[in-house]
Automatic annotation (TrEMBL):
It comes from Persicimonas caeni. The lineage of its organism: Bacteria, Deltaproteobacteria, Bradymonadales, Bradymonadaceae, Persicimonas. This is GGDEF domain-containing protein. One of its GO terms (molecular function) is diguanylate cyclase activity. Keywords: Membrane, Signal, Transmembrane, Transmembrane helix. The keyword Transmembrane applies. GO terms for cellular component: plasma membrane. The chain crosses the membrane at residues 183-209, 216-241, 247-270, 282-300, 306-329, 336-354, 366-387. The keyword RNA-binding does not apply. Residues 1-24 form the signal peptide.
Length: 560
């Protein structure tokens, strides 16, 4: 019996020795291309009361040996301050390694590295600013030298905010020459998406300054606050103000503001499609509710504010989709494109909302999809704005054309003549024209035709004369109707006209009048007076006065 007990004790002792030996085995770093999880391989030691620091880790190794490895993600996320103690042996030929923490910033981080004899070879501590990477968004990277063939112990301290916490998959050890896929993907997305949103914000602001249409102002503010939201979410703000800067309130404020401006933007965009007064009031109520979060975030707990922001985003999204569907049914082309944008935004909103409500999601994928779909949705909104801008430009040009066009004859009117003559005179005085001539004309016989045959016949006479004027003169020459029976020709010349060359104008007008008479207006005639800038030294007012006086002299001569 005693012999059997001894054998049993020996076997148990051997098993315990094997287990202890296995537990004490360091992690083999044999593949520089591989990423090694510190959570999976390291011992997790909570330290909420700050027992250990970078300068004092006495007893931490013993506590780590008693702690477990491979703890649950939920425990890592919910622990505000903890140590990860990992024993590693570098079996590769690469000595340069990086302890990578893919988080926006950490209020406190420390890294201590000891060799096999317990001698410190590295101590770093402080706030994680992320300045050792391309952008703060890709987190903090602490470089370490792990000589090939040697065993080292890494003590990593992490203190993070409980919301949204730290993703265990983002606490890794990798070789320094190897690209971090997290860093590469997120850096590219942040540069592309933030750049696109800021560009759209500035472009919309410029359009608003030109047209004074508030749709563009709200969209510009929406894009700007959304850019700020992502800049705070991914730690870009800390690049300028440091890791100690508390971005929580700024992040919540940017989120609430983006909801307000998005609601006002869509309300203004769709109001031309006669949304009911009830729907319009709903827009204003939702915008006011989102704005109230700007006040609530100063008095509510962090977690509650985060949840309320997520619920407000869901409410706004439902309202905007409903209104957009209504406008789509009413035949809005912009609304159709906007509806596609909301569909893309749904991915971002869904991930943000369920994460805010406490769901456990892979943080890297959430970040990539949320910022990517946000930027894609905003680009689609930009296309919607572009469609509206084209319509505004067409309307503006049409209004400008109407303001400078005679409605009856489609010739340019008095306003257009004054503008064009001012430009031609400036070009003449600058030496770009050798001559600029002005011909005033009265269409004689119009009053008699109106009295005898009616104003509709008189209008036909005006239209016929105007059509022939445009046909018979060069593209550089411009014909205008000043009003009533008064017309004017603006005739620039690149070379100086020869003496007496103005007689060609009389011959051309005589030919036009002959066609007018043949068109059923035998009593029609024209009197004209010609003057040039060269004879008045470039004086516009004097040139017009001379042309007008010569026209009336010509008219009186016909009456004699």
């Amino acid at each position: 019996m005693k012999t059997q007990l001894v054998i049993l004790l020996v076997v148990l002792g051997s098993l315990l020795g094997v287990v202890a030996s296995a537990a004490a085995q360091p992690v083999k770093l044999d593949d520089p291309a591989q990423t090694y999880s510190l959570v999976e391989h390291g011992h997790f030691v909570p330290d909420l009361d700050g027992r250990w620091t970078a300068d004092n880790i006495d007893g931490l190794a013993e506590a780590a040996r008693a702690a477990q490895t491979g703890v649950s993600e939920e425990r890592v996320r919910s622990t505000e301050r903890f140590w990860l103690v990992t024993s590693v042996r570098n079996d590769s030929q690469e000595a340069r390694w990086v302890v990578s923490l893919l988080v926006s910033y950490l209020p406190e981080v420390a890294l201590v590295v000891e060799d096999e004899e317990g001698e410190r070879i590295l101590t770093r501590s402080g706030e994680s600013t992320g300045l050792t990477q391309i952008l703060p968004v890709v987190g903090n990277a602490q470089p370490v030298i792990l000589e090939p063939g040697e065993v080292n112990t890494l003590y990593l301290l992490v203190r993070a905010r409980p919301e949204p916490g730290v993703d265990p998959s983002e606490l890794v050890l990798r070789s320094q020459p190897a690209w971090s896929p997290h860093a590469f993907q997120l850096t590219g997305f942040v540069l592309l998406c933030l750049g696109a949103m800021i560009a759209m914000s500035l472009f919309s602001l410029v359009i608003w300054a030109r047209f004074r249409t508030t749709t563009y102002l709200w969209f510009s503010l929406f894009a700007a606050t959304t850019s700020l939201l992502w800049a705070t979410a991914y730690g870009v703000v800390q690049l300028f103000w440091g890791a100690s800067f508390d971005i929580s309130l700024l992040n919540f404020g940017a989120n609430a503001s983006s909801l307000v401006f998005c609601t006002l933007f869509v309300r203004r965009l769709l109001e031309t499609y006669e949304l009911s007064a009830k729907v319009d009031r709903t827009f204003l109520v939702v915008a006011a509710a989102a704005a109230s979060l700007l006040v609530a975030m100063f008095v509510m707990p962090h977690g509650l504010t985060y949840t309320l922001n997520a619920l407000a985003a869901l409410l706004v999204w439902v309202l905007l989709v409903g209104a957009t569907v209504y406008a789509t049914v009413r035949g809005s082309r912009e609304a159709r494109l906007l509806l596609v944008a909301w569909g893309v935004f749904l991915v971002s909103a869904f991930l943000t909302i369920i994460e805010g409500l406490g769901a456990s999601l892979p943080t890297l994928q959430v970040r990539l999809w949320t910022i990517g779909t946000t930027a894609a949705g905003m680009l689609l909104m930009g296309l919607t704005m572009g469609s509206q801008m084209r319509r505004l430009l067409i309307e503006k040009r049409s209004a400008e054309r109407d303001a400078r066009t005679d409605a009856l004859t489609d010739l340019r009117n008095r306003t257009a003549f004054e503008f064009d003559f001012r430009k031609r005179a400036a070009a003449y005085n600058a030496g770009r024209y050798a001559e600029v001539m002005v011909a005033f004309m009265d269409l004689d016989g119009l009053k008699g035709i109106n009295d005898a045959r009616g104003h509709e016949t008189g209008d036909n006479l005006l239209r016929t004369f105007a059509r022939l004027l445009e046909r018979e003169f060069r593209d550089d020459d411009r014909a205008y109707r000043l009003g009533g029976d008064e017309f004017v020709l603006l005739l620039p010349a690149r070379s100086a006209p020869e003496k007496g060359e103005h007689k060609w104008l009389q011959m051309r007008l005589e030919g036009i009048i002959a066609e007018v008479r043949a068109s059923g207006f035998p009593e029609a005639d024209v009197s004209f007076g010609l003057a040039s800038l060269s004879e008045t030294g470039g004086n516009r007012k004097e040139t017009l006065a001379r042309a007008d006086a010569r026209m009336y002299k010509n008219k009186r001569r016909k009456r004699v």
